[in-house]
Write a structure and sequence with these properties.
The structure is a homodimer.
Chain A: E1 4-6, H1 9-21, E2 26-31, H2 37-49, E3 52-57, H3 77-86, E4 91-93, H4 97-100, E5 107-111, H5 114-117, H6 119-123, H7 127-142, E6 146-150, H8 154-166, E7 172-176, H9 196-201, H10 203-217, H11 223-235, E8 240-249, E9 263-271, E10 274-282
Parallel strand pairs in A: 1-4, 2-3, 2-6, 3-4, 6-7
Antiparallel strand pairs in A: 8-9, 9-10
């Protein structure tokens, strides 16, 4: 099967129109490229539920802060296309920035509740505005019936579900569990930045979460104690610097002192210059 | 033909799905009710272009400022439905505020360019955010192929065209010319607030615009001189208080000192306690 490469919005709309005319359902898997096995798992989940799978590859300038890694973000379109073709994805939408944000562009989608002010939202001002805006555009362009996102960016999924419901977008949003390397490291395009020593050090993310989860399953329900377990574990790794460790109810991200309902334990850690995130859901 | 009354989003989605299944095109005419002949002209324009016409009647709290007339805004759903039925409109979508903005609602669509900071945007902060948000929701709910808006709210049409293009909403936005009473008064639901004397005084809006337009057609191209004609005419009416008179390029609303391309001359005037707007397009 051939992978259809769609570089413009008009081409994509025409492609989708054709697919829908023959009664096919359409899945969208938005990515920023630099695809790894975690992305391919999203593609499989999409294939299982829809007739046609469109992956988008767009490093969205709007969701990067001025001091973040937009320019340096890994890009390898040719390699990505090979992976998508092997995964039998039907089409890839890969627009240029000027195709998505032409001169005079002026519209933003914002979510103004607790879901954007916490965790990465507090650390990356404007980030979720950029995410909400680009995902709204991608959903409108592809008219997707279902869209698939990874749990690694759990807060992103919460924000997306919020504006999809609020704006009455006719799409079902699905969250796919985190995919990890055998040693536990959550797969991420940003792992490509890590040296061998840093990759080793990065194991503190998943290990600290596992430790806290084990304590939770043994009856530790105090949020502060669970956060402290993570904090202490990460302190022991010299290459690691904790950005945040937070525990909120999930999916509504309310503060909690005692874990008496489903919660998310989420962390951001700098390993050298690379900021990584990870999380685990503590089922009630 | 029966007018279908749709009170919930789910009903409306089901109705539209049924219509689209049989290959019908759908028009949306968003209104805040208190329908007059100007609205019915929008319905006719919609009927001429689409198979199914849905009018929405929703007095949108999000687009009113705290000191504006949200509570007092005229509402008469039964009379509106009679008018829609006579005009052979297919369905009316009339949601409660809590249906559109349920508890936890948090998403806003904003247009951050010159189109929202001028004219009514400068005088009514947050107004166009409310308009953009509710129209996005209405378009998503009805999956309209075309949506119809009146030129009286010309700035609103500019803003809507902007975010429809920016967010890649799959809809064509159409602007229908201003409908006027025989004496020139632009039809508006807010005219219902006027006493007989005020209704007479309100003629200064259309008369002052006509005067300026006549001067323009006779070769007066200086924006400030055209504005002055309006200003002077309105000053002569004791019941009238000018809020703004502005002249911008149309539809992009850039400043201009000499009218050397298509422009809009737009005014807002308080007649007693009632704020009315009117405009005329000066064709290049």
């Amino acid at each position: 099967m051939k992978l259809n490469t769609l570089l413009t919005i008009a081409e994509t709309q025409a492609y989708v129109k054709e697919m829908k005319k023959s009664g096919k359902t359409v899945a969208l898997v938005p990515t920023m490229g630099a695809l790894h096995a975690g992305h391919l798992q999203l593609m499989q989940a999409a294939k299982a539920k829809c007739d046609v799978v469109i992956a988008s590859i767009f490093v969205n300038p709007m969701q990067f802060g001025p001091n973040e890694d937009y320019a340096a973000y890994p890009r390898d379109f040719a390699a990505d296309c090979e992976k998508l073709a092997s995964a039998q994805v039907d089409a890839v939408f890969h627009p240029a920035p000027a195709e998505m944000y032409p001169a005079g562009y002026a519209t933003y989608v914002t979510v103004e509740d607790d879901s954007t002010g916490k965790l990465c939202g507090a650390k990356r001002p404007g980030h979720f505005r950029g995410v909400a805006t680009v995902v709204t555009k991608l959903l409108n362009i592809t008219q997707a019936d279902r869209a698939f996102f990874g749990q690694k960016d759990a807060q992103q999924v919460v924000v997306i579900k919020r504006f999809v419901r609020d704006l009455n977008l006719p799409v079902v949003v699905e969250m796919v569990p985190i995919m990890r390397a055998e040693n536990g490291l959550a797969l991420s395009s940003r792992n490509a930045y890590l040296s061998a020593a840093e990759k080793e050090a990065a194991l503190v993310l998943s290990q600290s979460l596992q430790k806290a989860e084990k304590a939770y399953k043994s009856g530790q329900l105090q949020a502060e104690d669970l956060r402290a377990i993570v904090r202490q574990h990460i302190q022991n790794e010299k290459l690691a610097e904790l950005d945040y460790v937070e525990l909120y109810s999930f999916p509504d991200l309310r503060e909690m002192t005692v874990v008496n309902e489903t919660a998310i334990l989420a962390i951001a850690v700098k390993i050298g210059a690379v900021r990584l995130i990870d999380n685990t859901i503590l089922e009630a």
